[in-house]
Structures are given as C-alpha cells and as structure tokens.
Write a structure and sequence with these properties.
7 strands, 146 residues, five-stranded antiparallel beta sheet
Length: 146
C-alpha cells in the first residue's frame, strides 16, 4: 500500500530520520564518524521518536551496529505526506576534514508540498542555540553509556 492508496481515515505518514555519531575506535585506533537514516510509518511525530530509539537500541543490543558508539544524535526528521513530483532536498551535509561537519535538515521545505521538517531536543532543555563561539549545545538522542 502506498500513501496515495490510503483513505482519509488512515492518517499514517512516512517519517525519515537522519542521525549522526562520532567516536574513537579502540579497534582501529582512529577517530570515526558517520550518519544513517531510519524510515518508519506512524500517525504522530511523538510516536516516531519512540520507534527511532527502539530501532537504534535494538541494533546496538543485537551487536549489528554501533559497537563502539556511545552517543547518537538526531539531526532532523521529516514527515513525508507526499513526494513532490519535482523532488526535494531534505538533508544536506557539508563536511570539512574527517570529523567537522554541518548537517542541515531542510526545515524550510514547504509543508504544502508534502514534506515537513522537525527538530528534537530533550524535554528538560531549551532549544539549542548558537553561543558566542558559534557552537551549539547539542544533546544525544540516544546515550548508550553515561
């Protein structure tokens, strides 16, 4: 079944989450970093966050991924009501060197075209903002070790 095949009562959307991580590999003896995406279907962004965490934790527990990773960041996630016929850029990464990079979820995607971008921060913190040095106080979405 596709989004177009659903009746109006079936208010489920496709969500695409973009995540990033960095760590020092004791095995390879070097700094490593990466990113990945998760796609899920649900009826609310709040439920999607739970699904994202569950998938990530399951992959770590099963030993499939994230063996040496302690923190995973949710860069952005998008609700896809439809895909514009002309397409749309929904994630942009500009990398400099091995680990410094900027990941920009395109929050400015016009929701009338079917794509809405969401950010995330812990409920007990303020929305991340730039400090005097141009840095952001980011919080991990999933923390494996404290």
């Amino acid at each position: 079944m596709t989004i177009e095949d659903r009746t109006p009562e079936e208010d489920y959307m496709i969500y695409l989450g973009t995540f990033s991580f960095s760590f020092f590999s004791d095995v390879l003896k070097e700094e490593r970093n990466g990113s990945f995406q998760i796609v899920v279907e649900d009826d609310s962004p709040e439920n999607v966050l739970k699904k994202f965490k569950s998938i990530i934790k399951r992959k770590k527990k099963n030993g499939e991924l994230f063996k040496e990773v302690d923190e995973i960041y949710l860069d952005v996630f998008h609700e896809l009501k439809k895909v514009p016929k002309e397409g749309a850029i929904i994630n942009y990464i500009d990398a400099a060197g091995e680990k410094d990079h900027i990941s920009l979820g395109c929050f400015t995607v016009d929701s009338s075209r079917g794509i809405t971008g969401y950010g995330w921060h812990p409920e007990d913190t303020e929305i991340p903002s730039e400090d005097a040095e141009g840095e952001f106080d980011l919080h991990p979405f999933v923390l494996f070790k404290s």
